[in-house]
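Schema walk-through. Below, the input block comes first and the output block second. Nothing else is stored per chain. Lengths vary across the set, and this one has 165 residues.
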Amino acid sequence: MGRICEGNILEDWQEAWRSPEWPPPLSCLQVLLLDAAPCALMLITCPFYAWYLLRRPPEKLPKCLNFLTKMMFSVALTIVFVVQCFLLQQSGEPVYLVVYATWAVATVITMILVGLEHSRGQARSFFLFIFWLVAMGSSLLLVAMATSREVKECKNHAGNVRQIY
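--- output ---
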């Protein structure tokens, strides 16, 4: 298995930011940072939130659709990320292996926090809302940049095909 980011990380970063193209090509480090930012937020702040929840008196809430949906969603995401980790371990993509492993840990923590919230009588969580909002924002940015790049490549390919005919 190779290093996480091949080549010089700083040169890749500078090349990506100095590129006149829009969207700029993403360096390995930028992909890693954009994908891992929500997980880092979760890992840094979850001990404080768990401590806050543990200080609250226990108050059981009835099992409701909101709680069950959050738990099922977290379980499904954890399974997806763990399967991706196993598949990427075989293919030898260390960057994405790190990202998906971090996401798997973050979704397990999400399951634990949802269960802890439920046991403490809290139905909604501003903490998890912020986590999913940051996760959605970084993912949408990555998808938008990848889509834009693919559209540009398709246009270039279509232009090359027209020149042939």
